Amino acid sequence: MKEEKQIIIATHGELAKGFQSALKVIVGEFKNLRVVSCYTTSDFDLDEVIEDIMIKHPFDKEDLIVCTDMIGGSVNNGFVKYLEKYSFHLVTNINLAFLVDLLLTPGGVDELRLISKVSDEFVSVKYVNQCMKDLQGYDDL
Description:
Number of helices: 6
């Protein structure tokens, strides 16, 4: 585990910029956060973007965590192809709660720490109607 981390949020369309905007409101500026809005132009080349990220990243100094929007999607699959060639962490099906937690965790992130974070009940998707019923005994919401 390195002392620092670089986080890349890569999504279809402008979703990554939306995450970045919300994160700025919640946690402020984060110098090691980059967003990639995929397929927003007709000449977008995901492999070219990924190669550029990987070639420029200082793997000896920083952990690289790539966060994508959905498993099985073209953005996530694009990064999967590079897992054997480069030493980075790939997380998918991200949400704002997970990203806030990741950004606020100091230092780098190793595999066990990431496994713990993605398994954390706090950052999972919730059906609030059922949560309210469970917590307060509501029958009709």
